[in-house]
C-alpha cells in the first residue's frame, strides 16, 4: 500500500470478525519496531482479546526465529487494557504524557552534553518513545455509549479522534484504529466499495469516516 501505513495520520482498518484486522496490525507493528530500534509501540486492547502468543509468533516469523531480536521487539510493546471510553481517553493521555516526559528528559540531557567536553564520544541515539499505536477495537468503547444516546457517543468519538490525531501529528505516530463492519443494502450510486458485490461498510457511521485520514475496508 504505497510503502505502508502513513505516520502522523489516523488509519482505520474495518472488517467483520475473523477478517485479519488484528493480524495485519501485528505485522505492521512488527515492521515498525524492526525498522526503528529506538522507539516503542502501544497496543490498546478494548475487547480483552489480545493474544501475546500470536504476537510472538508473528515477530518470530519476521525475525527468522532469532530469539534475541524477537525478545527485543516484544520488550518494546506496551499492552494497555481498557474497558470503556474513559479508559481509552486515559490511555491516550498516558501516551501523550510519556512523550512530554521524554521531551523534558531530552532537554536536560542536551543541556548536560553542551557542558561536556567536545572530545567525548557522541551519545547514543535518543529514545523516540511510542511511534506506533494500535487500538483494537475503536468501535467497542463507542458502541457501548449508544445506550446513553447516539449524540453523546458521536461527541465522545469525535473527541477521542481529535486527541489521537493531535498526538499522531505532533509526534509523527503511525496510528491504526481497528473497526468492525456492518452489512448494508445501499443504492447503486452510494456503494461503500467500488466492487458491487461488497455488502458491508465500516461501523460507527459517516461521522467516523470523517474522523480518520485513511479508511480501509476488508
UniProtKB/TrEMBL annotation:
Ion transport found in the keyword field: no
GO MF annotations in UniProt: ATP-dependent activity, acting on DNA; four-way junction DNA binding; single-stranded DNA binding
Keywords: Nucleus
Organism: Tuber aestivum
Main location: nucleus
GO cellular component: microtubule organizing center; Rad51B-Rad51C-Rad51D-XRCC2 complex; replication fork
Composition bias, Acidic residues: 111-123
UniProt keyword Nucleus present: yes
Localization in the cell: Nucleus
Annotated PANTHER family: DNA REPAIR PROTEIN RAD51 HOMOLOG 4
SUPFAM superfamilies, alphabetized: P-loop containing nucleoside triphosphate hydrolases
UniProt protein name: Uncharacterized protein
GO biological process: DNA strand invasion; double-strand break repair via homologous recombination; reciprocal meiotic recombination; telomere maintenance
UniProt feature coiled coil, ranges: none
InterPro entries membership: HRR_RAD51_Paralog (IPR051988), P-loop_NTPase (IPR027417)
Residue segments, region Disordered: 104-127
Amino acid at each position: 500500500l504505497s510503502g505502508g501505513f502513513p505516520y502522523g495520520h489516523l488509519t482505520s482498518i474495518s472488517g467483520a470478525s475473523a477478517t485479519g484486522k488484528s493480524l495485519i496490525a501485528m505485522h505492521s507493528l512488527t515492521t515498525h519496531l524492526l525498522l526503528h530500534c529506538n522507539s516503542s509501540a502501544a497496543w490498546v486492547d478494548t475487547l480483552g482479546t489480545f493474544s501475546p502468543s500470536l504476537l510472538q509468533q508473528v515477530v518470530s516469523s519476521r525475525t527468522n526465529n532469532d530469539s534475541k531480536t524477537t525478545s527485543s521487539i516484544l520488550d518494546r510493546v506496551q499492552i494497555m487494557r481498557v474497558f470503556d471510553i474513559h479508559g481509552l481517553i486515559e490511555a491516550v493521555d498516558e501516551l501523550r504524557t510519556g512523550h512530554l516526559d521524554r521531551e523534558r528528559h531530552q532537554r536536560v540531557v542536551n543541556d548536560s552534553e553542551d557542558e561536556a567536553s567536545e572530545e567525548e564520544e557522541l551519545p547514543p541515539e535518543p529514545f523516540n518513545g511510542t511511534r506506533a499505536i494500535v487500538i483494537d477495537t475503536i468501535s467497542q468503547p463507542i458502541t457501548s455509549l449508544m445506550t446513553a444516546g447516539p449524540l453523546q457517543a458521536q461527541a465522545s468519538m469525535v473527541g477521542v479522534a481529535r486527541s489521537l490525531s493531535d498526538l499522531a501529528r505532533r509526534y509523527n505516530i503511525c496510528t491504526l484504529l481497528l473497526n468492525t463492519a456492518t452489512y448494508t443494502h445501499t443504492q447503486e450510486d452510494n456503494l461503500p466499495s467500488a466492487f458491487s458485490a461488497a455488502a458491508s461498510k465500516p461501523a460507527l457511521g459517516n461521522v467516523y469516516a470523517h474522523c480518520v485520514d485513511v479508511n480501509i475496508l476488508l
